[in-house]
Amino acid sequence: MEPKFLIDTNVIIDYLAGKLPAEGLDFIDKVIEGIPVISIINKVELLGHNHPSLHQCKLFVGVCHILELTEQVVDITITIRKSRKIKIPDAIVAATALVYDLIVITHNVSDFEGIAKLSIIDPYQLKDIDRI
Prior knowledge:
The protein has 132 residues and is mainly α.
């Protein structure tokens, strides 16, 4: 079975701005060939204020599968917040990934360090895209 991914806000913004390195760009292209997956918190972060790439973000969000804030996600978010210092949006992204067995794609790896069973990929650090 192919791994499934949850794309974090920072990666989406960098992807739309063309800031990812070539390997990261190729990887994200492959991830979004199907239906990209994001958390409801990513939607809020992407569309929650006016910025130059808002139109592109709206188009991107429009093709995404958005995972809602379920009771199970809330419970795991609370558990994560009790176990370490982490911002609520990052805890929600991590909890969502854990509930749905997804790998988080983020450049902000340090935001998610120490969360048990959470898998992370940094598209800025890919060496061999075919291994994933």
